[in-house]
Every structure is written in structure tokens, then in C-alpha cells.
Specification:
It contains three helices and three strands. With 86 residues, the protein is α+β, with helices and mostly antiparallel strands. It has helices spanning 2-12, 22-31, 66-78, and strands spanning 35-38, 43-48, 51-56. It is globular, with a radius of gyration of 12 Å. β2 (43-48) and β3 form a beta hairpin. It has a single domain, classed as Double Stranded RNA Binding Domain (2-Layer Sandwich). The longest helix has 13 residues, at 66-78. 23% of the residues are buried.
């Protein structure tokens, strides 16, 4: 539980972090009840609380880029996920 909160805080931290591992974000999403499925190439489809999004897994690096972190912020907000949910 604490690990997911740490990831959640990192996503919403300013300035935007470029050192969040994608696998930590996926673990956070799963803990919040997201359905994650593979798309083509590095695409990942995510459905959480009826909100759908497509993200690209970073490769070959493990860290998520700042733009994707900003998009994840929006996605979590739209899906109604807050600090108490993780």
C-alpha cells in the first residue's frame, strides 16, 4: 500500500518527475482496479472507473517521460482516483 502511495505522490509532484518507473505506475493502476491490456507495439490500453486511455510503455528505458506523467495525472483525475484510493 505504501509503495503505491509513493508512486501516486511522485506522479503529482511538481516539477514533473522523469524518474518514475513505468512498472510502478502499472502496479498503482492495478491496485486502483484498472484493467490493463496490451495494444500493438508498446501501447497499453487502460480502463479505470469507465475512463479509457492508451499509453506507450517506455522502452528501452524503464522511466516514464514527463509528458506521459502529465497525461497520467489527467487520467487519474478523470477516473476519480485520489490519494485515499491507493
Amino acid at each position: 500500500m505504501g509503495r503505491h502511495r509513493k508512486t501516486y505522490q511522485a506522479i503529482f509532484k511538481d516539477p514533473v518527475s522523469a524518474s518514475i518507473a513505468w512498472q510502478d505506475i502499472e502496479a498503482l493502476l492495478r491496485s486502483a482496479g484498472a484493467e490493463i491490456s496490451e495494444g500493438e507495439g508498446s501501447r497499453v490500453r487502460i480502463v479505470l472507473n469507465g475512463v479509457r486511455a492508451v499509453f506507450h510503455r517506455p522502452h528501452p528505458e524503464k522511466e516514464t517521460r514527463r509528458g506521459a506523467v502529465r497525461s497520467m495525472r489527467r487520467f487519474l483525475n478523470e477516473a476519480g482516483v485520489n490519494y485515499d484510493d491507493v
